[in-house]
Specification:
Structural class of chain A: alpha/beta
Mean pLDDT of chain A: 92
Protein name (chains A, B): Acetate--CoA ligase family protein
Number of strands of chain A: 30
GO molecular function (chains A, B): ligase activity
Pfam families (chains A, B): ATP-grasp_5, CoA_binding_2, Ligase_CoA_2, Succ_CoA_lig
Distance between the termini of chain A: 38 Å
Largest interface: A-B, 87 and 88 residues
Organism (chains A, B): Nocardiopsis endophytica
Low-confidence stretches of chain A: 1-5, 503-514
Oligomer: homodimer
Keywords (chains A, B): ATP-binding, Ligase, Nucleotide-binding
Chain lengths: 715, 715
């Protein structure tokens, strides 16, 4: 069982097989062709040979290694078993010889007219744990590697994992270990652990094979039998596609970066369709850009006005003096292509296409036409069919919605206008500090990976949160995410997760939503934090820039309410974190501050009715002890320590600690009457992610920060 | 394989075995004793017999049915296989005879000094799908029945289901079908479907056995081999406990009802420890009861005051003229027992023990003393260690917290004071209509089942939502829930889900049963809706009384934002509902109201930018068509249909439909700027469960209503 790494794959052998198939107009390979591909990439499959005499059968069997299986080879006998043409478990030369004679005789009896080419001798696959190893071509991500446990587990419970191909060995081992039932591979009920390295070899080799030969659309090693001494594919299947869909256009990182820089920090903006008539989109856009405080040049374009919203208007884009960086379109769809020619001639970096009436209403043709114009001029398109975009560091509200002015570290994007409005309302209501809110709509051109590339290098952005229904180029997104994640968290809400949801996505944008598990696995592989719902997308977006990154896994709960402590503990475990087992000396130190009946260990239950000083001392201790990496606070509203008193003391203690260089994430759950709402807001403004009436959300956002920190390699 | 139903179980046989074990001080049964129990309850186990000669072995084998297994029986040979003392697959009289002789000879060679009692002949268990059937004694619920798929599935994936024992046949079939991998029982990969009825027989029989004989602490049929023709337990194991913990005291339904009636609708209340001193609990309680508007008599008890908060004070409870229904205690723990004697003498129905300082601080003795006094007088105790209780229909705020006056249909209880305060704050902030908020604290006496009994019959309560950490008597709770659920929803947040202790267990079944899944399964079996977190407990409590019960499973989404439609579809599936496949005539009817590019099917995507009339017509159509059973609305904030316009039109359409007797649940997700908050509140006040900035919560509360409606037998 040589692996490709020892001698390198035999690409010529594969090329020859595929060329023959293409020449013959086939999209499937025969079993021997499949074996040839496997052999070329060092994928262990049972050796086999054709024998035309009993002596030859014995010789081949000994070469291949006993035991073997013997099968009649005849173009006229379809059902080999019915014809007595199969013998298994042949474990001696004598048994092989007898089987050869018996099989041939039986076949002649079964059909005296049958042509008999001989007997195939195949090495028996050693028994072992059944797994499935495969590769497929995902419409979003391209070549992906698939690993699943065989039999019931993959068939009934769909226990399979997906990763981008090609895979590193470490990726492959991680993929194998990610199955829910991976424990099976360690041997259960007295069985031996299988050789995971051998399985990883197969996964890596197959992923390289499909990467080297993109015309291999699907590859299926199923079942693979894995044991302590190796792994062998008992069956191999390949499906070819010599006419794959064209991959989406790729821009270089530098190209993307420079276009996005000009779009987000423009010196001049043209508003095509700017209007003085209230209620018109071109009016709202002008008003928001000007009233929002944008400091660059703003050129309204309107052939029927001399002036729009106090700025001199131009009859056409061509009339604008000098160049423009961005043109915001607020004219009907059918006029966009024409005006875009002028925008292109002006050397603009980007066009923001607010109008609808393109692909989403069946006018793919109009959208294609506009894209062609843009490509000719090197103009990047945002939209069409969007609300526009906000970038608070430049006081830029190029949108027909209301302006937004709470600057901060969160960049949010949405594929849907409705979701964009929810993001706007939520951000305003919670005072979320935002760097950008961007609608991407039909994504004729600019996709999430372009935006991610910009936000990744934008010092004003400290976390990126994206709502998406599909990705035009999943692989480009993964590459961008891998580049950004080590520096800042990327949160994604992928809509259309369930099959019902995926169907709705199909009818909405014509997007093809893939199997959700593929997205889930590959986004996680890229280090993306996936939000389970819209509310979490926004809450993670709000909290992640506020919380410092944890430097270790030791989470401690300090609570005034035992009941909150129990729920917070549930939430810590639910969110993939672990409660620190507090060592005796630290436990004693906590105990010195709390009543004798306060609970030992973690949660630290300071009990209800304690004065502010008890909260203060225990929280300070948790912050100052270097073994503690994150704090979850449970507050209980009492007369002795009212909500705002608690909020102020926590803010002070945290600020003091940060001044001393102690920068740990602190989250809080506030239980109490309505005063806890203002207290939570105060805490949030002072760097503590605090929430009233919920024990889940503070721990969820901390869990999101942890998932990011792990993906970023900080832990 | 006779089932117990054909002849009835042989209880005498079981009694004899158990009596012998008890007399011998054993807590485990031998294999023959286990077989005797199985035989007595018609549980099929392999027949077996002892043979002392080869001829006898043949005769026994033929009687039992071939094939058989033969095993040496010798008190001196522990490792039968090592001694060559086992033969399997004996399928003819000749094989049995030879095996007998071979085994005995081998055993003699192995240990010439060994005493040989003979050879055990046991029928071979027919092969089949491996399952586990068991019973255990749960500390909360008592006897429970366990069903799991055998081998890897139960060991690695813990795929097991739990139900209260004894079980009906229907319960057993439902339990079997509830496994995640139940599909395996229908035959996968070409296998036959197993006989589920036979498995149900075993489950029912075992559950009856452990119910009839409570000293059987654990029972384990593992593995059971199930096939198309039946099921047989290959191994049987019992663990006994002749000294089980005492069951909690039970009250009759009538007793509970009459005590609770007097506690929630008292004519007179004594406040023991009432005080004029601001900041004291006894002062807050008095003030809240009086200021809250309670119309009954209020007697402050304070030996040092003539008057408290404008009411004549009494030196002791004994001095109060006439009887009292409830005494609220606001005195230190050590004085409670003494005062309770007087309260008992006054014939009070209940005592509300606000003070802490009992079991939660290690003073179980004080708590036991108080309970003993209460039992002697027939006084029921709420608490100790609670914030008190609210019952808005009587304007009763017997608590030291702030009063609550938004009357409505939701009764909420909490085991923790901190959680109680969160409930109070949330309710006030959202304007939730509440019938009661009750703290149960240490639960020295009154448990959730008592409260549930009252709320079940209370016309002011339309839904019950309970936070609990444990149940003193899980079986009593299930009985109360079963009684209440057909009339109104019961929601439970069970805290401490992940901290389920790993208790030492004597069997595989016992180990499986130490899990949160037991609560989950048995609460669901009782028809309880489980809330995944604190926020959901409160949101379900708020929304369930507002929503009418659905009359069928056909959910339709009507949305102005396609993006919301996708997320709402995801949420519908996530929450166990199904999107109605809209038939062509109804689809056409919807299409008549929406733009040509609006999406067909479900979601009904009316597209953004539509006027109020489009929302109105489509929503009315959804309400009026009898095939549609529930509506999920997705609103998108636009200038054309602003939030409050949408809210008012939906409220009007729903009101008009309800006036015509069309009473369907309607929920809404509002995407938009902050005005959607007021719009959501307006909708909630008009019978539509509406939420801003979330596509998940409206669907979650609808899902909770559906889960209840199914449990209540309405669907």
């Amino acid at each position: 069982m040589s692996t490709p790494s020892s001698s390198g794959p035999d690409r010529d052998a594969v090329r020859a097989v595929l060329d023959r198939a293409r020449a013959e107009g086939r999209t499937a390979l025969t079993a021997p062709e499949g074996k040839a591909l496997a052999d070329a990439y060092g994928i262990p499959v049972p050796g086999e040979a054709l024998a035309t005499s009993a002596d030859e059968a014995v010789a081949r069997a000994v070469e291949l290694g006993l035991p073997v299986v013997a099968k009649i080879v005849s173009p006229d006998i379809l059902h080999k078993t019915d014809a007595g043409g199969v013998a298994v478990g042949l474990d001696s030369p004598r048994a092989v010889q007898e089987a050869y004679e018996r099989i041939v005789a039986a076949a002649r009896r079964y059909d005296p007219a049958a042509r008999i080419d001989g007997v195939q001798i195949q090495r028996m696959v050693p028994s072992g744990t059944e797994v499935l190893i495969g590769a497929a071509t995902d419409p979003t991500f391209g070549k992906i590697a698939v690993f699943g446990l065989g039999g019931i587990l993959v068939e009934v419970l769909k226990d399979a994992a997906f990763r981008l191909a090609p895979l590193s060995r470490a990726d492959a081992l991680e993929q194998i270990g990610s199955l829910r039932a991976a424990e099976v591979l360690d041997g259960v009920r007295g069985g031996e652990a299988v050789d995971r390295e051998a399985l990883a070899d197969l996964l890596v080799s197959l992923s390289e094979l499909v990467t080297d030969f993109p015309e291999i659309a699907e590859a299926d090693l199923n079942p693979v039998f894995a044991s302590a001494s190796g792994a062998m594919a008992a069956d191999v299947r390949f499906v070819l596609d010599f006419d794959p869909p064209e991959p989406p256009k790729r821009f270089g990182r530098e190209e993307i970066q420079s276009a996005m820089e000009r779009m987000f920090r423009p010196r001049s903006i043209a508003v095509v369709g700017a209007s003085n008539e209230a209620g018109k989109i071109g009016n709202s856009v002008m008003r928001n850009i000007v009233d929002g405080g944008f400091a660059g040049e703003v050129y309204p374009v309107n052939p029927k006005a001399d002036e729009v919203y106090g700025r001199r208007a131009y009859a056409s884009v061509g009339d604008i003096p000098g160049g423009i960086d961005v043109a915001v379109f607020a004219i009907p769809a059918q006029f966009v292509a024409g005006a875009l020619e002028e925008v292109g001639a002006k050397g603009a970096a980007g066009a923001v296409l607010i109008p609808s009436g393109f692909a989403e209403t069946g006018r793919q043709d109009l959208q294609d036409e506009v894209l062609a114009v843009a490509r000719r001029h090197g103009v990047r398109l945002l939209g069409p069919n969007i609300y526009g975009y906000y970038y608070t560091p430049e006081k830029l509200s190029a949108t027909f919605c209301t302006p937004y002015d709470v600057a901060g570290g969160t960049a949010l994007t949405s594929q849907s206008g409705g979701i964009g409005m929810a993001i706007l309302g939520f951000s305003r209501s919670t005072g979320t500090g935002v760097s950008a809110i961007v609608g991407v709509g039909n994504k004729a051109d600019i996709d999430e990976d372009d935006l991610l590339t910009f936000f990744g290098s934008d010092d004003n952005t400290r976390a990126v949160a994206m709502h998406l229904e599909d990705l035009k180029d999943g692989r480009a997104f993964v590459e961008a995410a891998r580049e950004v994640v080590p520096r800042k968290p990327v949160v994604v809400l992928k809509a259309g997760r369930t099959s019902a949801g995926a169907k709705a996505a199909g009818s909405h944008t014509g997007a093809l939503a893939g199997d959700d598990k593929v997205y889930d696995d590959i986004l996680r592989q890229a280090g993306v934090v996936r939000a389970p719902g819209l509310r979490e997308l926004m809450e993670y977006g709000r909290a992640l820039p506020v919380l410092p990154a944890p430097k270790g896994e030791n989470v401690v709960i300090i609570t005034g309410a035992g009941g909150s402590g129990v729920l917070l503990s549930d939430a810590v475990v639910d969110n993939g974190m672990s409660l620190y087992e507090i060592p005796p000396d630290l436990d004693e130190a906590f105990r010195a501050f709390i009543p004798p009946f306060g609970a030992a260990g973690n949660p630290v239950d300071i009990t209800g009715g304690e004065p502010p000083s008890t909260y203060e001392k225990t929280i300070r201790l948790g912050l100052e002890d270097p073994r503690v990496h994150a704090l979850v606070l449970g507050y209980w509203h009492t007369i002795v320590t009212p909500p705002m008193v608690f909020a102020e003391l926590v803010a002070d203690v945290v600020r003091a600690a940060r001044a001393e260089g102690i920068d740990k994430p602190v989250v809080a759950s506030l239980s109490g009457d309505t005063e806890v709402e203002a207290a939570s807001t105060h805490l949030f403004e002072h760097g503590v992610a605090a929430y009233p009436y919920t024990t889940e959300m503070p721990v969820q956002v901390l869990g999101a920060k942890y998932r990011w920190a792990r993906a970023a390699g900080l832990l």
